[in-house]
Amino acid sequence: MSELHAVFGGTFDPVHFGHLRSAEALARLTGLHKVTLLPNNLPPHRPQPVASPAQRLAMLRCAIADLPLFDIDDRELHRDTPSWTVTTLQTIRAERGSQQPLAFIIGQDSLLSLNKWHRWQELMSLCHLLVCRRPGYCRQPESAELQHWISKHLTDDPRRLQQYPAGLICLADTPYYPVSATVIRQRLHTGQSCSDLLPLSVINYIRQAGLYRD
């Protein structure tokens, strides 16, 4: 049985405990051996980050310095075009070979709107989807086409993720961490403490760099 690795994309502006602890919970639930954090440069469906690519990369390095589960892939930060998940996963799949079990981590909100993603139906040929449940979201998407697609690939046995290189969707009962990067930036802007929301090493970097003050 091959080791299951996962890719976790995001702006990480800044990285916080909601990111890190959700991924750690996923690792415990599914047998993940490695989580690769993939910071976006120009996310196509979200507002552009406040911190620069170099600053967000530095914060990620601070956050995972003592966490061996994680590593970082900064390839998207070197692009000056929007970061499409499917094209990045194609590259990663080519590098890791056809048999490496590979997953992409998303939240339940993303799963319910996946049919709006670029070339979304190709994802199952490239990876599994590990989905962190989110309270307050309905269990089924509005799109019947998407619901059928999800049902076709859904598994309730995480062990199967290590038996196949791609093609499965696993809804994981991860704990809910109500942490928002937007709220963190607002609190930092007004001088409030964020010690319960993100690692101290990241807070120290933010202070030294003068981030999120304006």
Please summarize what this structure is.
The protein has 214 residues and is an alpha/beta fold. 34% of the residues lie in helices and 16% in strands. The protein is built from seven helices and seven strands.
Average pLDDT works out at 92
Helix content: 25-40%
Could you name the ranges where pLDDT drops below 50 across 5 or more consecutive residues? none
Strand content: 15-25%
Order of helices and strands: EHEHEHEHEHEEHH
Helical run tally = 7
- For the biggest β-sheet, the strand order reads 3-2-1-4-5-7-6
Let me know the number of strands. Answer: 7
- Using only CA atoms, what is the Rg? 17 Å
Coarse shape: globular
Described by strand count, sense and barrel closure, the largest sheet is:
7 strands, parallel
N-C termini distance? 50 Å
SS-based class = alpha/beta
Function: Catalyzes the reversible adenylation of nicotinate mononucleotide (NaMN) to nicotinic acid adenine dinucleotide (NaAD).
EC number: 2.7.7.18
Pfam family, one: CTP_transf_like
InterPro entries: Cyt_trans-like, NadD/NMNAT, Rossmann-like_a/b/a_fold
